[in-house]
Amino acid sequence: MQSIQWDPSFSVGIAKLDDDHKKLIQLINSLYEAWNLGKDGLVIGSLFDALQVYTDSHFQREEAVLLALEYDRMPQQQHAHACLVGALQNFRTRYLAGGQATKPTAEMNAFLRSWLLDHILTEDLMYRALLASPESLALFDPYRLDL
User: What is the pLDDT of residues 68-108, one digit of tens each?
Assistant: First the structure.
């Protein structure tokens, strides 16, 4: 499993949301590392839990920003978020069945990679121009960290 590296082209224009994306990358990379090191179900479960909690808080933060800006693709963004959360929960359940973490499959690796990168590079980058608009800048300083 190849780790995911942050690239400045992933930036959406608000530092806190970018920091969230960096943290999500870190959590996924930690999950990869734990699998590669053969960590037990408790460790894997804790990492899945941390990923789930941080994902939920990120999506809430991101959706609050987009709602304030009346983002026209908000229903699609919320649907994508709900699907991603559901899929993450499903994988957690499947891979920790019976308290034993199984080795990740190509499906799981592809899911985690695409879950984050495809979502950022498709869904999230669609709103980057909106975040750079004068209306957005009046509401949200792109360098604020307290969203």
Answer: 888 999 999 999 999 989 988 888 888 777 655 566 666 77
The H or E element that residue 146 is part of is: none
Contact in structure between 5 and 120 (CB atoms under 8 Å) = no
Structure tokens at 98: 């019976």
**42-61 tens-digit pLDDT:** 888 899 899 999 999 999 99
Show Cβ contacts of residue 138 under 8 Å, excluding neighbours closer than 6 positions: none
Rounded Cα distance, 142 and 122, in Å:
20
Q: Which two tokens stand for residue 73?
A: 């693709």
- Domains of the chain by range and CATH? 12-137 (1.20.120.50)
DSSP codes joined into one string, 32-48? HHHHHTT--HHHHHHHH
